């Protein structure tokens, strides 16, 4: 419970700080782990094992080189060794190399907790990058590479995941900046 409270406080502080600098959209995304979806892994999980990441993100106003983004995320995986849950918060800066804002490159860092079935909550840092491609003004295709600290696995410090999914953007740009 102590870890969940810490993550909740971090999410609230990040989102409140972000609101002070302004936001232009809220993004809702879902992404699936490519390896577990198509290949499986070395821990006995077969292809088509569900590992989904759900994220609520707040996107700042477009600046010269991009915009800030903060988010709250939840990951669930139905693994052979028991259900996996990860709650977290992340902050990143989306670099937009084109004026049309159709392509975004976002390095990010995050903190959270993870819980495996029958185990207690453990801290978990993550670092990575996301590439997004705008399909419609409200829809993006996203791919992320994520280095997640896995304190629940005895032989692994960080695990690399490649996730692919979609993001729906809901405009909150009532100031028309």
Q: Which key phrases capture this entry?
A:
177 residues; mainly beta; Porin; 8-stranded antiparallel β-barrel; 2 helices; 8 strands; 14% helix; globular
Per CATH, the class reads Mainly Beta
CATH fold category name: Porin
Q: Can you count the helices?
A: 2
CATH architecture: Beta Barrel
Order of strands, widest sheet: 1-2-3-4-5-6-7-8
- Radius of gyration over C-alpha positions, nearest whole angstrom: 17 Å
Major sheet: 8 strands, antiparallel, barrel
Helix content: 10-25%
Mean pLDDT: 85
Give the CA-based shape.
globular
Distance between the termini: 41 Å
| Strand percent estimate | over 45%
Order of helices and strands: HEHEEEEEEE
Low-confidence stretches: none
Structural class: mainly beta
Number of domains: 1
What does this entry look like structurally?
- The structure is a single chain.
- The protein has 177 residues and is mainly beta.
- 14% of the residues lie in helices and 56% in strands.
- It has one domain: Porin, CATH 2.40.160.
- The chain contains two helices and eight strands.
- It has an eight-stranded antiparallel barrel.
- The mean pLDDT is 85.
Q: What layout of secondary structure does this protein have?
A:
Blueprint: H1 2-21, E1 25-33, H2 34-38, E2 51-59, E3 66-79, E4 82-95, E5 103-116, E6 122-136, E7 139-149, E8 158-171
């Amino acid at each position: 419970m102590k870890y969940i409270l810490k993550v909740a406080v971090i999410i609230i502080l990040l989102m409140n700080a972000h609101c002070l600098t302004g936001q232009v959209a809220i993004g809702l995304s879902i992404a699936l782990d490519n390896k577990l979806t198509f290949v499986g892994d070395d821990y006995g999980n077969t292809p088509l094992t569900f590992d989904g990441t759900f994220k609520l993100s707040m996107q700042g106003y477009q600046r010269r080189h991009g915009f800030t983004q903060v988010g709250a995320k939840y990951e669930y995986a139905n693994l052979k060794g028991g259900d996996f849950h990860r709650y977290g918060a992340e902050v990143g800066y989306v670099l937009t190399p084109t004026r049309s804002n159709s392509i975004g490159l976002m390095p990010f860092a995050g903190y959270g907790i993870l819980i495996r079935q029958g185990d207690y909550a453990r801290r978990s840092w993550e670092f990575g990058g996301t590439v997004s491609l705008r399909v419609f003004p409200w829809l993006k295709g996203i791919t992320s590479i994520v280095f997640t600290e896995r304190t629940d696995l005895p032989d692994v410090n960080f695990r690399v995941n490649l996730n692919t999914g979609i993001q729906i953007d809901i405009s909150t740009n009532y100031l028309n900046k």
